[in-house]
Protein 1
Amino acid sequence: MNNSSNNNFIPIGKVVKPHGIRGELKFFLYNKDSNLLSLNINIWFKINNSFKSFDLLNLKGLGKIFRLDSVNNRNDAEMLRDKEFFVSRDDLPVLDEGNFYLNDIINFKLFNVKEEIGLILDVLLLPSANYILVNYNNKEILIPVLEKYIKFFDFDEKIVIMKNIEGFLNL
């Protein structure tokens, strides 16, 4: 188990509960289509305000149960119940030119063509679509990240320009 003070972690799922007596954990992924756990990467948990790394030893149950190093019995597993788990950004696969991870736009400014709308606070992966959570006039609003609303992403200026989103702003 390694300690790290690096805050470059991306939440990918949550432990639901222990499974059995050998330290296995039942979990769910925020992105059900993700294959990150099959890439032999470290799983990170925030424990006592510090990130700790665990090697993924086993994945079974149609990808819904895993076993981690240093988690050898139900008591160990119980300590991780309901905990969110993360991957390090450094462990993510390199993307092709022009592609990006959606969480890369967190803290970007959102514009509706020319007018600044607010700051992107978070990205939510919901069954119907991916959404951005935006601070708009000191209120949090959700806007779907769909092609019909996206004009472009500017990673140099850290802005997202969307179109036709007026209906989401009329609260």
Protein 2
Amino acid sequence: MKIHLNHISKKSKTIAATAFVLGAALAGVGSIGSNTAFAENINNIDKQPNRAEHITNLVNALAQKFNLNSTEVKTVIDTVMASEKVSMQAKHDQHLADRLAKAVTAGKITQAQSVLITAKIQETKAFMESMMNKTDAERKTAMTTFKTNIQTWATANNIPKEFIGMGGMKG
């Protein structure tokens, strides 16, 4: 997916790029695509700074500093961040697909297991997203159950342990 930014001035693009880098650093976006990091930090979510608040503060600071309309700055930042997220996710997905294809070719797993792993990774992503609005106790219980289910699934499908950590699956 390519987002065209031709209608946006060079100054706005520069500000958006700067904002993205700063926003990523502040919000911890550097781990996009890493559900493993997400899973390891899930219990600290209430202690983490609010990402939306960081972006709002960044938008307002940039708008004020460069005498711009904050709505326009927010639109540019949102557009650039959405584009970057899509691009990073596509690269991550391709890396996983390549790793699975190599494992099939090397005889470490079958094509059927590769399909099962890919489906489980998608299921894991959805599960991790569902954790966002849960309490600490609910997350802890859900993660314990999830871990047990992953181990059971891997055993039932004869999935080698080296593939259980892919895409955030932790067993």
Protein 3
Amino acid sequence: MLKLAERVRRASRDQKGFTLVELLVVVAIIGILAAVMLPRLLGYTNQARVSRAMGDIASMRNVVEAWAANEGAGYYPAPDNSAAGGVGQVLQARGIKWTGGTDGVKDPWGTAYRYGTADVNGVANQAYLIQSAGPDKQFGTADDVWASSSTAPVQSGTPDVTPTTTVDSAS
């Protein structure tokens, strides 16, 4: 019995690492897990970007609505980045970096947000649209994220307001 115990102790002391087969099995398992999980994780990344764009647009929408109610006498800010009463000045005064320059706020895909107003019954600035071009970076497609004077942020291709004049948040 003593000899058997001594052999087991000696064998465990002589063992210095993993065999090549053990390492290959572990690498194969990690590769299979990565191949299965990667497509699922990429979908979550895109949804997170859409959610961020919706949040950004919701914040801008809240500022525009509050300004129209408090300071705009029922009119929405003009699509202008530099004039008083323009969307650039209104949003910047409330902490949103809408400059019209290279340092202006951009959507999660690196495209400038777009703001535009529309006339209603011949009266200017009675409706507005805030829009992100979405993942394909092209305005007017099905993946656009937008909000208007009558709709909370959504992702679809057809806004319910067609602006007569627009201005971008960045260049």
